[in-house]
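Lab notes, practical 5.
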Amino acid sequence: MSNKFKQLDLPGKLGVAALKLLGRLPLPVASKLGRAAAQLVWLFAKSPRQVTLRNLELCFPDQPEEERLKLARESLIETTVTAFEMAPAWVQPPEKALSYITHAENEELFKDAMKQNRGIVFIAPHFGNWELANYYMASKSPLMVIYKPSDSEALNKLILKSRTQIGEMVPADKRGVLALFSAIKKGKTTGILPDQEPSLSSGVWVPFFGIPALTPMLVSKLVQKTDAIALGFGCQRNPDGKTFHVFYEPVDEEIYSNDMETSAAAMNRCIERIVLREPSQFQWEYKRFKRRPDRSPNPYR
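Output from the prediction step:
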């Protein structure tokens, strides 16, 4: 690909044009299209299918192989549907997206935390529809989140335009992180996606479903240095397949430990409880255990 082609950002512009077209559809219609496309993804996307199956084999070793295969297929469908739902969430007004959320579970945890005015750090893994989760958080409290820019300037503009309607975005660099710490100290809230592998310098090795996993320390550092309250959070698809509900998940007190491994392990246990609400709605397609602490072979090879 030529430098001129990259500078023009033609792939990004074409992608955004497609997203805007898809984004005009009602979210349930986009969901149906995603479900149809997911059948092809399951059949022809070999790598995501294999990664999902390997993750399930590692995390649920006692589950019969037939059940893991069924769960893998359901997970790939859910992930594809969620991807299709991003377009309406980004293109349409936030209140339209929020109209698909029917209720909130354990909301008293959030209300009690807000009363303390200490700031809240939401532990919000890639579960259900995390874009709607972001909108709901912002609709209930002053929200600041870290954003890792895309390589496409056109896509960045679309996402930032959508998300900054209801919350504040800061880049995932040193200045952005410092701004986040400052905001939390002032009583604001943030949502952290804590279920992906960080750099070696910013993570610790703690269990995730019994498997040592390089786990980010950002949540632990935020709650330790700002006195914020940690809460699990997610947006789960309802059985009708068209609507969602949000939920708050309590976090073990060990999350506030000064020991990073103890704190990060408590965070992972919270994520596990969220995943077990409906395992098919977790993004198992990510290579969560690619790095190994003992330099053993990459389990995805």
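Observations recorded by the TA: The mean pLDDT is 93. The two ends are 29 Å apart (CA to CA).
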